[in-house]
Amino acid sequence: MMQFGTALYKDDCQSKEILEFIEIMKPGADLSTESIDRIRKLTRQSASPGRSILVYARLFFWGFINYDQAIDDLTGSMDLESFNRLDAFERIEISSCLGPRLASKLTGIDIAEARNYRDAACDDVNVDFAVDFESDEIWCYTPPPTGFFSVIENILIAKFICRLQRKTFRLDGNFHNWWRYPVAFNEIFPNTFDLHDSSTDRPVKYMQWKVARDIMKAVGHDVLKYFSKFKLDEYKKIKQELATWLNDQGDAVELSAQSAVYFIRGGDKLLLETVAPPDHVIEDDFDHIFKFSDRFMVLSDDYQMAEGFRHQYGASKIDNITDRNCGGYYAMSASSVEDVRRIVKNYLIIASVKYSMSCPSSNLVNSAHWSNQRLEMLHLSSTPILRYSYL
Length: 391
Prior knowledge:
This protein is of the alpha/beta class and 391 residues long. The strands form 3 sheets. The protein has a 4-stranded parallel beta sheet with strand order 8-7-5-9, with helices on both faces. Helix 1 packs antiparallel against helix 2 (33-45), helix 6 packs across helix 7 (100-107) and helix 9 packs across helix 11 (209-218). It has helices at 15-24, 33-45, 51-61, 67-74, 80-85, 88-98, 100-107, 111-118, 148-165, 185-188, 209-218, 221-248, 269-272, 279-290, 303-313, 337-350, 363-371, and strands spanning 2-3, 138-142, 168-171, 204-208, 259-264, 274-275, 295-300, 318-320, 355-356. It is globular, with a radius of gyration of 21 Å. It has 3 domains: 2-118; 138-229, no CATH class; 253-371. The protein contains 17 helices and 9 strands.
């Protein structure tokens, strides 16, 4: 599935346009010729291509829109100026779904640059970070009070920016400002993140999350390659701390060596922000992944949604391992340790399998993929981009 990461804000000029796209492509909708024509018309009429162009690009990747149609629809609206207005992660998706040659033809960027965007999140980057440096200033960061792994992603962005700027990163120790879960943040992560000590005699700059987000949205593919290496290193530590915490709760994740998983994000994401691949795309991917795995599992934040997928795509071949008490993260009260345990366990399952069909635009899945050193990326049609993040 493809998700737009953050909610559609009232002042977002594309909100109405995006909602029209999603109405056409809501789960179970028939993507008829008439529906595709409506999407093409919306694209041609768009005054400012942005998130709606991502839906268009994914439809192109799935084969609902052909090359000549894309040329007709996007020439003149998808140019170099509009491409540069997209954030870095959106440029990755455009270059991946349209392909470097078509992306280059439509935007005017060099084809080598389009290929660099497509490959920006590869994990084969050899970078040595100068972690031991004398910093003249501490930058203290307060994350926005968002979901569990959205908080983690935002913290990593801020920490990375401090690394680039050669500043000392510290995390705001006033957890009530941003952490909404019943387990103390530093109980789950006792070692990965250093907290701000107000007794320091060094100058302190308080870093706002919107500033950090905007900086990362504007970076080029060269910095994204550094960011990839940084995230791989950080998530090794994060995964270990979360596994230790879950084990202390009397739980653990045990999977077969050739296990595979498909995570479905439901709850608040289901109708507002999620665009599901067509049935035949999912079915083809299932047939492909069944050949490699010895156990295929469906996992969700919503038990009933996972159960529906299991019956739709092969009840005899798919195990629904979702906790029966899960009714969507949006509906979850997050008022108990058990709620946190479910979130962490879902992450660790995806972070431990060998194969994943899960869409990484859910921050839980995105974090799990970066944490999974044994994950083998199969060439799947439902998820053309297996490592990227929405801020």
